[in-house]
Design a protein that fits this description.
The chain has helices at residues 2-14, 18-46, 50-56, 68-74, 77-110, 117-129, 133-144, 152-159, 162-175, 178-186, 191-199, 204-220, 223-228, 239-255, 271-294. It is mostly helical. The chain has two domains: 2-43; 75-294, Orthogonal Bundle (MetI-like fold), CATH 1.10.3720.10. Helix 2 packs across helix 15, helix 5 (77-110) runs antiparallel to helix 12 (204-220) and helix 5 packs across helix 14. The chain is globular and about 75 Å long.
């Protein structure tokens, strides 16, 4: 009877009363709305006409709905479409390469048998506190590595991060027991075979976390293009830089409106709605990719991986 009493006590301890359950549901609904409403508001503004924005400002119920902002961007579909493909290519290649480099370094540092473990851990930790600065980074990438006007200039600077390595190393240390590696060594597996066939398959949550960070970093990056890609290599521009360039051109046209040719009008340019349409185009693709990572955020993948 005693075990049954313990089970009943645990159940009562884990139970939540109906009022508290309602309160928790209400809180989570509020949190969800604070995440969804801003994106919905941006979409509504991108579908609002210039006249409506001038009359009533930003509103959930504009006086006039229009697709003029998206039509304006559609006229540049060849330019934007190529940049979209460039961004996808850079994001996919950079994320895969970053996962490989960060995970291999993290795996080495997570092994207690590695003699230089503390030394390299310190060398990796220092850049989290201090870095060489923008000028030295630019000179090394352009003068020493000669990455200017190449796709590598958009991939390599973001590829490896001390933060990613530390996170992955901590995950491997706390999640994967040493007995997994030792049992593979007894069977005669090499370090490469252990890493690719044993460690990686049971490290999917950690890889998914780092992969999500890398994908966000590559997809949102436009600063590297501004630094390393010259204007005569415009075909290499990623989507984010192209959209920033379009927005800057619109702002320049507004500032120099007095020099416009007769018959041209700023009312033909949906400046405010185009800005919001750019946000929608940038956010939606990467937001749609998140659910594919979500299924890997689980624990307990090491159950049954150790030989009995």
């Amino acid at each position: 009877m005693k075990p049954q009493k313990i089970v009943d006590g645990v159940k009562r301890f884990n139970q939540v009363s109906i009022p508290v359950n309602i309160l928790f549901n209400f809180i989570f609904i509020i949190i969800a709305l604070t995440c969804v409403i801003p994106l919905l508001f941006v979409i509504i503004i991108s579908l609002s006409s210039n006249e409506s924005i001038r009359e009533i400002g930003y509103s959930f119920t504009p006086n006039e709905w229009t697709f003029s902002a998206y039509s304006y961007l559609w006229e540049m579909r060849n330019y934007i479409g190529r940049a979209f493909l460039v961004s996808i290519g850079i994001t996919v290649v950079g994320t895969m390469l970053g996962l490989y480099l960060n995970s291999t370094m993290a795996y080495v540092l997570s092994r207690r048998s590695f003699k230089l473990r503390r030394f390299f851990t310190l060398m990796i930790f220092i850049p989290m506190l201090f870095n060489g600065g923008l000028v030295s980074t630019y000179l090394i990438n352009t003068q020493l590595l000669h990455l200017q006007n190449t796709y590598l200039a958009l991939i390599l600077p973001i590829c490896v991060s001390s933060f990613y390595i530390i996170v992955m190393r901590t995950y491997l240390q706390t999640t994967i027991p040493d007995s997994v590696v030792e049992s593979a060594k007894i069977d005669g597996a090499s370090q490469h075979r252990i890493f690719f066939h044993i460690i990686l398959p049971i490290s999917l949550p950690g890889l998914a976390t780092i992969g999500l960070f890398l994908a966000f970093a590559y997809w949102n990056d436009w600063f590297s293009t501004m630094l390393y890609i010259q204007s005569n290599y415009a075909k290499m521009y990623p989507l984010q830089y192209v959209l920033v360039d379009i927005e800057e051109n619109i702002q320049n046209m507004i500032r120099n409106a007095q020099y416009m040719m007769p018959g041209q009008s700023l009312s033909d340019i949906p400046a405010e709605s185009v800005r919001m349409a750019i946000v929608v185009i940038v956010v939606l693709p990467i937001a749609m990719a998140y659910p594919y990572f979500q299924k890997y955020f689980i624990t307990g993948l090491t159950i049954g991986s150790v030989k009995g």
